[in-house]
Write a structure and sequence with these properties.
about 160 residues, 4 helices, four-stranded antiparallel β-sheet
């Protein structure tokens, strides 16, 4: 039982560290609101802030309550992750998903506490159609959620 927690929290720590390192690199390399074209017509690196939720939902920099709401959501997520880790049998897919979600939640929580917003920098687009900018923590959360759903589907 203890091994699953080492795995989940180790993967969470690795994800959060990778997220924070990439954000540090972006902030020290790309001026805020500047765009660096990587693949013309498809992929840019940007340096933007998101004070809202996923994909800019509730993105209003003048609303302080959001920081505390998202911080509370991260704490609740950790509780749910612990519960699922204890009750999920021996599913490596589930444990990987939980670790990725944990690391992503912690990575974005660090930004919210430090900056009252989250640093986003990956900008994919086709012509003028842009997917909202995101970061490594967001990737961890999305991949992790997908793995958790897959594990739940496979092991009803």
């Amino acid at each position: 039982m203890r091994t699953r927690f080492y795995y989940i929290y180790g993967l969470g720590l690795l994800t959060a560290l990778l997220d924070q390192y990439t954000k540090y690199w972006v902030v020290t390399t790309i001026p805020r609101y500047m765009t660096v074209t990587v693949i013309p017509g498809f992929f840019n690196l940007v340096n933007v802030r998101n004070s809202g939720a996923a994909f800019g939902f509730l993105n209003d920099p003048d609303t302080e309550w959001q920081v505390w709401m998202f911080a509370a959501a991260a704490v609740i997520a950790v509780g749910i992750i612990n519960y699922l880790a204890k009750t999920s049998g021996k599913s490596a897919v589930m444990f990987t998903g939980l670790g990725l979600v944990l690391g992503g939640a912690i990575g974005n929580l660090i930004d919210r506490i430090r900056l009252q917003s989250v640093i986003d920098f990956l900008d994919f687009h086709v012509a003028e159609w842009h997917w909202p900018a995101f970061n490594v923590a967001d990737i961890g959360i999305c991949l992790g959620a997908g793995l958790i759903m897959l594990a739940m589907y496979k092991h009803k």
